[in-house]
Amino acid sequence: QRYAAFSMSILGALLLFLLAFMHVPLVILRPGKFVVPYCLGNIMLFVSFGFIHGFYSYIMHLFSANRWPYSAAFLGTTVLTLYVAMVM
Fold it and tell me: Tens of pLDDT along 2-30?
């Protein structure tokens, strides 16, 4: 079941990345059309590895002593990017 969920979420992330990169030429006119699928693809990619490792151990790994600044920066910028693209 874990491998099936991992495969489906990887496939979903790849489809979202494909959708995002199809809108690259229009990023100047409508940045939300690129940003939203790209950020959701990144989130889905992180979730897919949670299926393999187990969510609790994966989150503990991401926020370990030497990795937490990078994980916090990634999550913060992803959330703020989605906020700016969808709300503002």
Answer: 999 999 999 999 999 999 999 999 888 88
Neighbours of 20 (CB within 10 A): 20
Distance CA 28, CA 21 (A): 13
**Distance in angstroms (rounded) separating the CA atoms of residues 61 and 54:** 11
The packing angle between helices 32-53 and 55-62, to 10°, is 110
From the number of C-beta atoms within 10 Å of its C-beta (0-12, 13-18, 19+), residue 45 rates as middle
CA distance linking residue 49 with residue 9, whole number of Å:
9
Structure confidence by residue, pLDDT tens digits, 25-60: 988 888 889 999 999 999 999 999 999 999 999 999
